[in-house]
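Checklist before submission:
- one chain only
- standard amino acids only
- sequence pasted in full

Submission:
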Amino acid sequence: MDLGPLLTSPVIIQIHALAAMCALVVGLALLFRHKGDAPHRLLGRMWVTLMTVLAVTAFFIYEIRLVGPFSPLHLLAILTLYTLVRGVWFIRHGEVGKHKAAMRTLFFAALIGAGIFTLLPGRILNETLTDGTGGWLPFAIAVALALAVAATYFRNRRKIDGM
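Returned file contents:
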């Protein structure tokens, strides 16, 4: 591992990467622990804050340019902010099922799904993890881990969510 590519990247990318890594850890804790108690609410507030930072910083990253300075990731950032607002609104109005669905969707689609693509060869995180060789191994490992987490979660969802 060589932190050089990440540490020499623009500050906005460093903040984005740090928020993503923290959101991943907090999100995993939220996903696999008891729901609805005080620690869940505290971790949930932390996760919403981290995901907000993640989405807002994405608006200032222009490495992939498909339409002018924009890419599909900018649309994902808008959708992330919208879903965060909806998820918080749902829980504040007692719609627990809709809250769970919104937050699960964000975790698996916006954080895990989009995060996996940061590990493609040529991307900063891939260069950081492969000492600049840019191989496919980090991407392959991330896909395998994401599938394992999803399978474990959805297989045990009733027990985890208390359904």
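Reviewer check: The first helix runs from residue 4 to 7.
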